[in-house]
Fold this sequence. Notes:
Blueprint lengths: L12 H18 L8 E5 L5 H9 L4 E4 L2 H14 L4 E4 L8 H7 L2 E5 L2 H14 L5 E4 L16 H10 L4 E5 L8 H14 L4 E3 L6 H4 L6 E4 L1 H4 L4
Parallel strand pairs: 1-2, 1-8, 2-3, 3-4, 4-5, 5-6, 6-7
This protein binds pyridoxal-5'-phosphate.
Amino acid sequence: xxxxxxxxxxxxxxxxxxxxxxxxxxxxxxxxxxxxxxxxxxxxxxxxxxxxxxxxxxxxxxxxxxxxxxxxxxxxxxxxxxxxxxxxxxxxxxxxxxxxxxxxxxxxxxxxxxxxxxxxxxxxxxxxxxxxxxxxxxxxxxxxxxxxxxxxxxxxxxxxxxxxxxxxxxxxxxxxxxxxxxxxxxxxxxxxxxxxxxxxxxxxxxxxxxxxxxxxxxxxxxxxxxxxx
Length: 229
Ligand SMILES: *Cc1c(COP(=O)(O)O)cnc(C)c1O
């Protein structure tokens, strides 16, 4: 986007939402996917409340946050006001934050170990909240990245099933230096092997590549809100 577009000092968040949603609809069509098959998770981490209010004003209701504390700051009050807001946790979760996460979020996308699955399942039972969860897969097998290794996915999935944690899909963040499509294709294959419906993959730079490969959720931040500060 050119600097000139912002020369009036206004943000263009609602225009960005319209443009990105149009791109998603077009990519769905080109890929022969049903209209609405791909849902937009608007990633609001590090954004101001004003920017978030603008996104809400545009009519959007599905958001993603990567930290529990920041998500509470952003959303605890707004979620009371707009009961139709849905919030996905897309960042790593410490077990000592599971209670707050289960209270605030509507989907946990980053289940990646048995201990976390156990704590989440117990907390959901306690709170009477049966949230859908995704397993995060470290498709690039990167040391520093969260997510279960592809070879350990099935064991973790079976464990989640055995404790009644409602796993409905998979999520990945491809390595920065590799073609993302390879990782999207791998994630789709893994989901198919476990008959899981949901695929959370694709961010600002590559969500259009994730759509033909089966994404049901794309997680887009900067392309909607502008740069993070
Ligand atoms: C920040 C973040 C995104 C959004 O990234 P953009 O490049 O700003 O679209 C998506 N997924 C996860 C897990 C993130 O942490």
